[in-house]
Design a protein that fits this description.
Strand content: under 5%
Shape: globular
Number of domains: 1
Distance between the termini: 10 Å
Mean pLDDT: 86
Helix content: over 70%
Order of helices and strands: HHHHHHHHH
Number of helices: 9
Length: 262
């Protein structure tokens, strides 16, 4: 088994708290961002919960999921991705609250979230000397990680709404543009660009991509969408997420069982 000479036993127990960055990771991440856009709308509008009740419920569920995730000794797919989905929903709601509840312009909220995310990264790096997700070996680093993740969802929501709504690009162009930017980021990574930088750029961009995709699928044809509605879109994407995460959970459990028998 691989060892980490610079770490004590407790740090080693914390080492694997996030998934490997694979194609499946990005697929589930994008689906999660779309769910963040559609589930909040479904609960608040279609299910009739209202914005206040929905925000309160999602915040409480996120607090519980994050507590479970932080207490896990190693990466556990169901706990990790449950937290990501809920962070996606709450991050979306934060931006929507500022925009719809307090009338904060997307031209203002987008740079505010960008500055806040930069501040989190600066504080994270100054304290830990790394921003790599492969070095999440302590609870403090994991807290920095989740703070950054929440901010990326709020920033991505604001940037996506700014592009597709305020700048009138439309949902199709939103998918094309943000998808293209992710492709450019990946190309930069393949050509030797900094892995940590390209990861976080792509992570931010998947949020407006997922939001644009969600709006494209759910909005009525008259508004430029496919008219699937939030309930069907949410159910479809959640089903795919559950299947992919369940498969990963099965594989992770199997590998650890084999390692324990050696």
């Amino acid at each position: 088994m691989k060892t980490f000479p610079s770490m004590d036993l407790d740090a080693q127990d914390w080492f694997v708290k996030v998934p490997a960055i694979t194609l499946a990771f990005w697929v589930v991440k994008i689906l999660s961002t779309t769910v963040g856009e559609t589930v909040a709308d479904y609960l608040a509008i279609d299910a009739g919960f209202g914005q206040i009740a929905t925000r309160t419920l999602m915040a409480a569920l996120l607090a519980m999921a994050l507590t479970i995730q932080l207490r896990r000794p190693r990466y556990t797919p169901w706990a990790y991705w449950l937290t990501v989905v809920l962070v996606s929903i709450v991050g979306t709601q934060i931006t929507d609250l500022l925009t719809d509840g307090f009338g904060v312009s997307l031209y203002v909220s987008t740079p505010i979230f960008a500055v806040l995310l930069a501040a989190i990264f600066v504080a994270w790096y100054r304290v830990e000397r790394t921003l790599s997700i492969h070095d999440i070996v302590t609870r403090r680093r994991e807290i920095f990680y989740w703070a950054a993740i929440l901010c990326t969802f709020s920033l991505g929501t604001a940037a996506g709404d700014l592009a597709t709504e305020a700048l009138s690009m439309g949902f199709v162009w939103g998918v094309v543009i943000f998808g293209g930017l992710i492709a450019v980021t990946y190309a930069g990574f393949r050509m030797g660009a900094n892995a940590v930088l390209t990861f976080w750029i792509a992570y931010v961009l998947t949020r407006p991509l997922g939001a644009s995709l969600g709006d494209l699928l759910t909005q009525a044809p008259a508004d430029g969408g496919f008219g699937m509605g939030t309930s069907w879109t949410s159910a479809l994407f959640l089903t795919v997420i559950v299947l992919l995460v369940a498969l990963e959970q099965y594989e992770v459990t199997g590998r650890r069982s084999i390692q324990a028998q050696r």
